[in-house]
Each structure stands twice: as C-alpha cells, then as structure tokens.
Amino acid sequence: MNRSRATWWLGAGLVSLAIALVGLEPASETSLTTHMVQHVILMVVAAPLLALGAPRVIQYLPAAIRKTLGSVSGSAWGVWAGLAVLAQAVAMVVWHLPEPFEAAARHDIVHAAEHLSLLGTSLLLWWVVFEGRRAHVGLAIGAMFAAALVCTALGAAIALAGHTWYPAYRSLSDQQMAGVVMWSLGGVAYLVGAVVLFFTWLTNLERSAPGGLVTSA
Question: Can you spell out the DSSP letters for 75-140?
Fold first, then answer.
C-alpha cells in the first residue's frame, strides 16, 4: 500500500477514535444510544481505518513481530481469520450482556477494558480481512457476513427486548434506539464492507484478465 495513503488512513482512524472515546464520552454516561454509537464507531469506523493505516506503524516494529504479523497474508491466513471472527464475536456478545455492561458503566477500568477489547478484536478482524482480500476473497467476504450476523442479532435482541437490560440506563426507548443503532449502522457497515470487497476483487480481476473478462466468440 502507498505509504502516504496509509498515513492518511491512520490519521483518520485516530481522529475517529478521539471522537468516540473523548467527544462522545460525557453524553454516553447518561445515554445508552450514545454509548452504542461509541461502540459502532470503534468497530466499523476506527478499526478499519486503523487497519488500513497499519503499514505505517508495522514498519517500525521489531523484526520478530513483523515476521509474525507477516504470516497473516501467508499460509496461516485461514487460522488468523477464524480467530479474528471468533474473538470479535465473543467480545461483542460478552460486553453487551447485562452484567459485564453494567460493570463497565460503573467502573472506569472495566470501561477501558470494554472499549479496548472491542477495538482490538475489530482491528484484528478488519486487518485480517484486508490482508486476505485478494488471495482469499471468498472467505474474507464470509468473515464480514459473520460479523454482520452477530452485530445484527445482538442489536435486534437489545432493540426488541420488552424490558431494560442495564440498570445504569433505565429508559426502554433509549435502549430500543441503541439496539437499532447496532442493528442498522453496525450490521449494515459489515455488509457494505463485504460488497466493497467483492466489487474490488471483481474490478481487479477484470483489469488483470487479458482483453477483459468478456470475450467475443
């Protein structure tokens, strides 16, 4: 990837991270919807942008770490992909269960762990997907659909619940809107990612095929 472009992606990722963790933090203490917007920004805005900007950071890491990270685009890609999908799904579900979510709302250190794990697992997922978008495009798209399914199902469960899940947020209408945010914005973002991956692959395939994909008889 072009280094200057990676720098722009990295900068945009850091800006979105600041918006989520600093700009929205005060409102998230009283609004579950805002809290969910934070999570969505971490998972489907900051994470992919930071993943695209990762080459700008990786080049400064020790050689041993760079070698390990290089295996993501090699024969071990499938293992990384499976771990990334599983890790993000577990983080997403666990942190939105009532008890862990309530603990995060009441304790700053748990809150930090919540955001760090959501960002970290999402960053891993997007990075692995981007690394495999050429050689493993089908599985990369499948990973996006799996993430969309988890995000959509979780958002729907929160939105359609007949009672509030979290004592720190007692408004049912607020909870319903928060669920819609995860259901629609989060789930749709992964689906958009899958569509972009497919059309990027198709465009590259068409460019690389002699005379294009369609030939006359």
Answer: TTHHHHHHHHHHHHHHHHHHHTSHHHHHHHHH-HHHHHHHHHHHHHHHHHHHHHHHHTTTTTHHHH
Rounded Cα distance between 144 and 1, Å, is 21
* Burial label, 138 (beta-carbon count in 10 A; 0-12, 13-18, 19+): exposed
Domain boundaries, the chain: 3-61+74-207
d(CA 207, CA 96): 44
Residue type at 16?
A: S
Whole-model pTM: value is: 0.85
pLDDT digits (tens, 9 = 90+) for 109-166: 999 999 999 999 999 999 888 887 766 788 889 999 999 999 999 999 999 999 999 9
Distance CA(34)–CA(86), nearest Å, equals 26
Cα distances (Å, whole numbers) of residue 46 to 149, 169, 177, 206, 210: 20, 25, 22, 31, 38
Residue 182 identity: M
Q: Is the dihedral of CA 175, 180, 181, 186 positive or negative?
A: positive
Q: Map residue 217 onto helix, strand or coil.
A: coil
Q: What is the pLDDT of residues 169-211, one digit of tens each?
A: 999 999 999 999 999 899 999 999 899 888 887 777 777 665 5
